[in-house]
Amino acid sequence: xxxxxxxxxxxxxxxxxxxSGPDIVWCPGGDQxxxxxxxxxxxxxxxxxxxxxxxxxxxxxxxxxxxxxxATYADDxxxxxxxxxxxxxxxxxxxxxxxxxxEMILSHPDLIRFGIAMGTSGSKAGFIHEWEGAEIRFRESxxxxxxxxxxxxxxxxxxxxxxxxxxxxxxxCKPVVAAAYAERDGDMxxxxxxxxxxxxxxTHLPDATRPLHVIGFEQDMQxxxxxxxxxxxxxxxxxxxxxxxxxxxxLFRHKPEAVADKIHEIIxxxx
Length: 271
Prior knowledge:
Structural class: alpha/beta
Largest sheet: 9 strands, mixed
Shape: globular
CATH superfamily: Alpha/Beta hydrolase fold, catalytic domain
Number of helices: 10
Order of helices and strands: EEEHEEHEHEHHHHHEHEH
Strand content: 15-25%
């Protein structure tokens, strides 16, 4: 896997790239880095896979402080795609990354073949809005979760009962949660999540000119699949897929092959 840095006037963007062939660009969720897509990279040997550390996470350094709306993350990614990929690309994202996918097909359609948004919503409302808002206020007030508490807290939002009830599976998945949350900078976490809570791309999706495939996870407590279905139904060319028995983070360590199989199926439909 190649590790490199792409410089723009506003950001030193760390990215990773592996393989050769048609381009797939993977957008991390909040608090995640590009390296965390390595599992999926290995399941797409016939493609060139690229991911990055969004502002506020990993090795990326922004010269401009928050707020960073989702449109800013999309602009960063658009510049990276022009530099290190051969557009139009397939773009895939989870959670915050799925919001970046939505914005990319709206603001940078010339760079995109189609988008795949996983564990996504069109706008924050109800419980999701209340929960993310509470997390932001907690971090902004200086709140910090001890590493062991953060592990337990966020595991419930990432993995289904199958993982939490199976000691072997939990030991396999636990490092994913720890890497994302155990030592997070509270201000940076709040900045990323603020971008998510403010985004409402669903109002513009009827005008999207690129297809959007939405993958929902049956046991996703963080972004219930009904929210993703709304996004697919709003898009001008939207398609919804439901993966059973999976949670928000199941594509990492739990069932990565099942997610890859679905993405391969979607891509094959365009070839």
